[in-house]
Amino acid sequence: MDGDEITGASLCSPKTNEDPDMGYVHTLGVRRPWRRRGIALALLHHSFGEFFNRGKSKVSLHVDAKSLTGATRLYEKAGMHVDRLSHNYEKELRPGKDLSTQSVT
What does the pLDDT profile of the chain (105 residues) look like in tens digits? Predict the structure, then answer.
């Protein structure tokens, strides 16, 4: 917080489906005016501490590796490493008018 304004947040879950000893960081974000001040790293370290206090020995999260915010560098700076990579592909099958909103007569 900066006065009455929220500067950033870390939303976490104390468990994952894949590993009961692992906590999960769902969302970590800092609002634009407060970026580049170490807030995200502080929030992440705080989250690690809370997981540890709750008996979690591991933490995971998902990130867009091409994020313009430098998220991957932040996580590496916090001591995290890439465990797995995944790729999402997208193709527009039919450009043009959206037919799903039209009625059939």
Answer: 999 999 999 999 998 888 999 999 999 999 999 999 999 999 999 999 999 999 999 999 999 888 888 899 999 999 999 998 888 888 888 777 766 666 555
Residue 99 domain-assigned?
no
Half-sphere exposure of 92 (CA within 13 A, CB side): 5
Q: How many domains does the chain have?
A: 1
**Residue 72: inside a domain:** yes
Residues 6+ apart with CB under 8 A from 53: none
**Which residue bears the tokens 């560098």?**
73
What is the DSSP-derived secondary structure letter of residue 20? Answer: T
Q: What is the DSSP letter of 70?
A: -
pTM over 0.70: yes
CATH number at residue 52: 3.40.630.30
